[in-house]
Amino acid sequence: MSGGPYITPRALIGSPRAKDAVAAQQAWAFLGPARAFAAIDVTTVQGRASTALMTRPAYDNALACASPLTGRAMDAALAALGAPRPAFVGLDLSATRIMGIVNVTPDSFSDGGKFADTDAAIAHGLKLAEEGADIIDVGGESTRPGADPVAPDDEQRRVIPVVRALAEKGLCVSIDTRHAATMGAAIATGARIVNDVTALADPAALKTVAPTAVSVILMHMQGDPRTMQKDPTYVWAPGDVFDMLAGRLKACQGAGIAADRIAVDPGIGFGKTETHSAQILTHLALYHGLGCAVVVGASRKRLIAAFSQGEPAEARLPGSLSIALTAAEQGVQIVRVHDVKETRQALAVRRMVSSV
């Protein structure tokens, strides 16, 4: 494989110093004028990945020696990294938003089926909204490693009453599904976002979503839930994931889904070893180069236990907060979490500290 250059912002600068650094040509704007980055990792792949760190002045000097094609590609990537993001499903993205998880499944890895009952799931969604969730993500099929697929009819029996009830309360509801029939049913009952672990790869799913006004989250997954953790392989995981998402983004836009309706999710833990996921988390800012909102969902995931002391899912809150803060630091617009109240507090403190 050969690819790149892939550009990951480094040396991030917050307000109020960002504008001065950009004006002095010591940094580039990052997702608008309020933030900036003073250096970049430039990664190229020729059978293996090679990364060089460049400051803004060093980049300007190097660009004079680069080929016109390379120069245009890098300038385009930097322009995408600098542009502010439009609202996503009506939500202003200047601060990190929270997506709260409601698993209406009997075999969820994170809560053991605690909200498989319709009334319990509805109550939990309302509680998450009260705690500060901007989006409620409702799913009826477990996509944990090794999970068996769920028939769309069964999935709909689980999720549609929950989607309807939460939407009727005026909440912004997302349907977490890879089945076109469930997408259509959820949209008809008030879902405003389709969150698909297969990135609308099914032509029926793309055909279902494109003519509507709903937004979509395109996630990267290598393989399927039953097999995805059996020896996943990448040349350079952050770049391989970037390329796949770029391809799906192009396909969705070609089908008529406007860029401001699309967000991307690199799929932490989906067909990735812990090392792959760690590499991606280190390069989250890379994905802003795709020009749309970025979502990260790593709440309570197994990689937290792998990096710590093997804690069960219910004891992974500190690690989950660490990843959410890492994502926010790199400009991620939406974090998908189980623990909304705690995440909201952590993000509020980070926002206060980074603004002075």
Topology (SSEs and partners):
Layout: E1 2-13, H1 18-23, E2 28-29, E3 36-46, E4 49-55, H2 56-63, H3 68-82, E5 97-103, H4 118-131, E6 135-139, H5 152-168, E7 173-176, H6 180-188, E8 193-196, H7 203-209, E9 215-219, H8 237-254, E10 262-265, H9 274-282, E11 293-296, H10 302-307, H11 317-329, E12 334-337, H12 340-354
Would you give an account of this structure?
This protein is α/β, with parallel strands linked by helices. The chain is built from twelve helices and twelve strands. A hairpin with a 6-residue loop joins strand 2 and strand 3. It is globular.
Features:
single chain; about 350 residues; alpha/beta; TIM Barrel; four-stranded antiparallel sheet; about 40% helix; about 20% strand; globular
Helix-residue proportion: 25-40%
As an assembly, this protein is: single chain
Tally of distinct domains: 2
Helical segment tally?
12
Question: Shape, please?
Answer: globular
Mean pLDDT: 93
